[in-house]
Amino acid sequence: MAQAYVLKGGYVYDPLNNIDGEKMDIAIANGKIVEKPPKGAKTIDVSGKIVMPGGVCIHSHIAGGKVCTGRKLRPEDHRKDVEPKKPGLRSGVGHSVPSTFTTGYRFARMGYTTVFEPAVPPLKARHTHEEFQDTPILDNGGFALMGNNWFVLEYIRNNEMDKLAAYVAWLLWATKCYAVKIVNPGGVESWGWGKDVDSLDDRVPYFDVTPREVMTALAQANEKLGLPHTIHVHGNNLGHPGNYEITLETFDAVREVKPFRERKSVLHFTHLQFNAYAGTSWKDFASGGQQVAEYLNKHDHVTVDIGQVIFGDTTTMTADGPWEFRLYHITGNKWVNSDVELETGSGIVPYVFRRKNPVNAVQWAIGLEVMLSVKDPFRLCLTTDHPNGGPFYFYPKIISWLVSRKAREEMLEKVHKTAVERTTLKDLDREYSLYEIAIVTRATEAKLLGLKDRGHLGPGARADVAVYDLDPTKVDISASPEVVEKAFSAAAYTFKNGEIVVKDGQVVATPDGSTIWVKVRNLDELKELIEEDLKEKFSKYYTVSLSNYPVGMEYLPKPEVVEVGG
Amino acid sequence: MKVELTPIEKPKVPVEAEVISPDVFSGRSVEEIGELEVWRGNRKKKLKDLFRISGDAAGSSEETTIIINGDVSYAKRIGQNMSSGEIVIKGSAGMHVGAGMKGGRIVVEGDADHWAGAEMKAGVLHIKGNAGNYLGGGYRGGTGMSALKKGVYGTIIVEGNAGSEVGAWMSNGKIIVKGNVGAFAGVHMSGGIIVIHGDAGERLGGEMTGGTIVVMGRVQELLPSFEYRGEVSEVEVDGEKISGPFLSFSGDLAEDGKGMIYILKEKNPHLTTPISGC
């Protein structure tokens, strides 16, 4: 029997159960939250501290092919941030592309317990799972890239929607992934022909489908299968001045798709900050944050995560090959671009976000502007699109900006004046409460991902708990942002499945996390529809045989399957 | 003040000897120096377990001279990051000798292993024997030899031969090799000077973007991404004139580089033949 605990006297923030800073005890037994502590439960005094569910990150690039290539590309990045070996812990390196063990430790130290890798090229899924295995403490899941996949494009062109849904179900099984990821739909395949797409109605060479068709068809397939998460979209024209317009068009494109059951949303639009730009060039670059926020406040079929920019040196990495090619031309930095057979592409370019750079200052402001302008925090998630906007371990910094206008004003003093002139950030006086922070860092994520036993502290939930050394009755969070940042940087306790993994900001235990994936119950039946197509494509075009393609369960030593449909 | 270290034994596993530095020794008595810790393989040892120590280091590091009487090719990182004073090794030195030096002088009377003077910023490293690979090179993610401040940089002199990737990633400083060098000398360099009195191996100056390489021996083949810029009668490096005539090349054009390579004409008639028809 695992040790049972009672966390006594903390201020509990559990938005999914409508608990807002109430002083109450949380009991843990056998890895779950329980109504009453069993006999022999150990009492831990957490009075004067806040208690939240373990953090859930919906979008951080932490494992797999491009992350590993990013590590190899950036030895200079690692040299300046070395984590020495400590008893029971592995050595590693941090900064923008941390090693797997360091990733696990640093997320856990912030009170995070579940993290999703949002871009798994199906052919590289094995590598992603291998790195999940070496990422301690955290539960992980991957989103499989589908927006530029030849099967997908052909089924859409031929209007074979049943086959499309069957293929999506099969691919999630074959890659042991959790959700459908779409990156620059149509654009990455066009990049294989030396082109990109500029509008939702541009046609992909040869396949003759449009980004609009790709997104709506995949959204329909996604909802038809009843997958726990909606489609997870990295939009077209990412990073381009003026791209907020295509972002709004994208939101509108999927408006008519019927959501599955009680769910309201059909689209999760990721790292919105990179797709919320106004202006026509880098010279008149400005924020489109208000426009997208206004849309989100009027419509409830879209959810977003933010992709906040952090000033400093980082490494951009995405499946969006054409964008990285542009970024290489902008920076002249070393770069990687690659093509993954029938599936997707990718690129990596180191990048420095500078305070005094007029464009970077606006980018920084847009993330906060959107987070402060979207009224319902259950529609948005806090991310940096790690490592694209900045490393994930700056989340506490972002929290301090959200809770304190003073902290934002101090930053506005230090950054280029464009942040004041070309965004509305300076005028926004909203300050997040700790309840809202709990929403955007765990509750929304768990809800959007359909993870019923995470992101809350109700009985039966997984005992993933974070305790932060911050007394909301004594500290005025708005006036002391640095105290908030410090508290969220080093959890007083992090519990993973009822086990203490972090104490006083130090990692004290490193259990293996599980791998969450989704299985469609009637997969065997669905697979018959596409069996012949799979055989044909694999024998004609793939470098691997069909039988060697699916990731076996041996790559998931601690699987956690979510079964849907059927 | 002079401190003499005489090796007692020759360990079969490497010793991490970064404490052998005037900066660390200065102001310490013989006893205190003997208590300094070093790693021998995975065991912690004291300096007195490995060396017989005499003399003292009562003064400042500038006044401190360390003399090692014998072969210490097993000892790595001697004089690493030292800022002043002198080390004389009367034998061969292990890897990373003088790496990251910020001043002072190291004389190695025997050979020096790989990474000698890596990422050095100032001072003099004089190797009387041969040097290994990455002489004055940069560690992964590092910058190679660079300047401590404007106009202050390090000098490495090798009387014998040096291995591959001499001066990799260097941005400032001077490396003089009296013998031959291996492949990739000056790879990725962006500034500084490499003078090679002997022959240079293949892919000389690959991906260099700046700096100067002078070769007085034979260069079997130059990368095709270097452009021939004509003959010069002499080359002036660091105020010193070396008489030629030299064939001059600029590159590496693959990196839009503006580095210069001067190769002695007399030893390299094959490089003057124009390439035709490809």
Explain this structure.
The complex is a heterodimer of chains A (566) and B (278). Chain A is of the alpha/beta class and 566 residues long. Helix content of chain A is 33%, strand content 22%. In chain A, the strands form six sheets. In chain A, strands 1, 2, 3, 4, 5, 21, 22, 23 and 24 form a nine-stranded mixed β-sheet that branches. In chain A, helix 13 packs across helix 14 (405-414). Chain A is globular. By secondary structure, chain B is mainly β. Chain B is built from three helices and 17 strands. Chain B has a 13-stranded mixed β-sheet. A four-stranded mixed β-sheet of chain B has the order 4-3-2-7. In chain B, strand 3 and strand 4 form a beta hairpin. The longest helix of chain B has 5 residues, at 30-34. The mean pLDDT of chain B is 94. Chain A binds chain B through residues 74-79, and chain B through 139-142.
Largest interface: A-B, 6 and 4 residues
> What is the 3D shape of chain A?
globular
What's the helical proportion of residues of chain A? 25-40%
- The helix/strand order of chain B is EEHHEEHEEEEEEEEEEEEE
What's the mean pLDDT score of chain B? Answer: 94
**What does the oligomeric state look like here?**
heterodimer
**Number of DSSP E strands of chain B:** 17
Rg over alpha carbons of chain B: 20 Å
Q: Give a short account of the largest sheet of chain A.
A: 9 strands, mixed
Chain-averaged pLDDT of chain A: 96
Write the layout of secondary structure elements.
The complex is a heterodimer of chains A (566) and B (278).
Chain A: E1 5-14, E2 19-29, E3 32-34, E4 42-45, E5 50-53, E6 55-57, H1 65-73, H2 75-79, E7 82-83, E8 92-93, H3 100-109, E9 112-120, H4 125-133, E10 139-145, H5 150-157, H6 161-175, E11 179-183, H7 187-191, H8 211-225, E12 231-234, H9 244-253, E13 267-269, E14 277-278, E15 286-287, H10 289-298, E16 302-305, E17 312-318, H11 321-331, E18 336-340, E19 344-353, H12 358-373, E20 380-381, H13 395-403, H14 405-414, H15 418-421, H16 434-449, E21 465-468, H17 481-489, E22 493-496, E23 499-503, E24 506-507, E25 515-520, H18 523-540, E26 559-564
Parallel strand pairs in A: 1-4, 1-5, 6-9, 9-10, 10-11, 11-12, 12-13, 13-16, 16-20, 25-26
Antiparallel strand pairs in A: 1-2, 2-3, 5-21, 7-8, 14-15, 17-19, 18-19, 21-22, 22-23, 23-24
Helix pairs in contact in A: 5-6, 6-8, 6-18, 10-12, 13-14, 13-17
Chain B: E1 2-7, E2 15-16, H1 22-25, H2 30-34, E3 37-40, E4 43-46, H3 47-50, E5 51-55, E6 65-68, E7 75-76, E8 86-89, E9 102-108, E10 122-127, E11 154-158, E12 174-177, E13 193-196, E14 212-215, E15 227-237, E16 240-251, E17 259-264
Parallel strand pairs in B: 1-6, 2-7, 6-8, 8-9, 9-10, 10-11, 11-12, 12-13, 13-14, 14-17
Antiparallel strand pairs in B: 1-5, 2-3, 3-4, 15-16, 16-17
